[in-house]
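User: Batch of two.

Assistant: Item 1 of 2:
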Amino acid sequence: MSENEGLISAASALIGDPALFGRVHDDGTVYVWTAAGEKPVGSYPGKSPEEALQYFVRKFETLASEIALTAARIRSGAILPQDAEIAVAKLRESIATINAVGDLAALAVAVDQIPPLIDQQRQIYAAKKADEANARAAARNDAKIAKEAIVVEAESISDKDSWKVTGDRLKELLDQWKVLPRIDKASDEQLWKRFSIARNGFDRRRRAHFAKLVAEQSTIASAKEKIVLEAETLATSRDWVATARRFSTLMQEWKTSGRGQKRSDDALWERFRAAQEAFFAAKKADLERRENSMGANLAKKEEIAKQIEALLPITDFATAKKSFRDLLSQLEKIGQIPRDKRDALEIRVGAVEKEIRILDEEHRRKTDPAAKARATDVVRQLTEAIENYEKVAAKATANNDAKRAADALESAEARRSWLAEAQRSLDEFSA
């Protein structure tokens, strides 16, 4: 742990006893003790002295955490040095203006430990920028080597007749070229020219090759006839999912089968489209029937949802919990409903489920022996504290120390209100 973190931790730990750093006056005003004396920080109307004091303690703790977090971010390099300096200035302003209860001097000391961290990070940042510049230079050199390798490979395969493999590889090489950073202009242009010559030469030979395939119209027509015959067979299928997927595949096969004679292509396409439309019309009709069924399911679920909502407000938790489970089981047994109705129905049921869950958690909390033991211990500690303060007051009175007696009685009185609250919390637990 760094010195800065240690200061923050120490400052935060002292809040274990807020009375070390502040107090609450009878009129509700909360004071913090500083090196310059006592300073009012505000009030918290409608709250007990302990709650008011804790409210301003939390403000202190929040600022302490912010200081620690800022130091950690600077140390990790998550914030730029110039931004870190702005953050430190804001922290100093916050310490000067905050209305909080805690060791404010410790926070100021902690902030003073941050600037050296900024100086360290500034040096690290400068070194990092230099490394990045070197890395960019190295990247440009690597890019030149990579582009030269791309060009050499493109030239070596541009005379191949494996049209798809070579075409795909040239495309991959082009994609690789695009993601590489630019190098010096002269080298870039010279290498690109060689690469373009290799690619264009291959493309010209490939176009000439496929131009010859135009004569093979009968082969294309035969392939499309096969596609159409299968589509006409599938038109009456009722296996909606698998058949729809097969129609999609047949469509892709049609697209990739090539272009035949226009008249033949048009006639085959009309037959294919007619088969496809017949199947999807039947599929749509079946979907509409299922949607009607979902409408009936929705009515049933709506009725059960009303019964679930009628469980509120809950007066008999055990009975309501059992009824909810039974109704929920009935709800889950009903089939599907329209998708656009699901969220609204789930929200209605969820609202009741949330209420039952809250009551269930409250029930477990009130019957938790460990929690009851903790509440009992708080009552015991406060009772002992009051007795100790009363003894101090009695002893001070006997010694004619009126101020110490008054302070002790005031402390005892403050803890009586805390004791009453603790006792009420204890009384909430089941026997």
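Item 2 of 2:
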Amino acid sequence: MVWFRANQPALRQDSSSRDRNTIVVAQLLPIFEKEPRGWGALTFFSRPAHPSQSLSQHFIKWRSGCPRELQPFITKLAAVFEVKA
């Protein structure tokens, strides 16, 4: 997602920006709608321990903390941001 790469610094600085967050949600919601069981993966989501943690590192940590059956779902979410999980 080219848009995300360009806006990631602003999102990190102000994570409550509704306009920017709406754009991200619009990309992710169809994935959750197609696979409703993916909502369970949010149980294992946590904020990055360090602000400098890369998005890829965060997805890897999130994926590894999920049950095996939810891990492919996290990989799909990471692909939206063009990062590996």
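Residues 30-85 form one domain.
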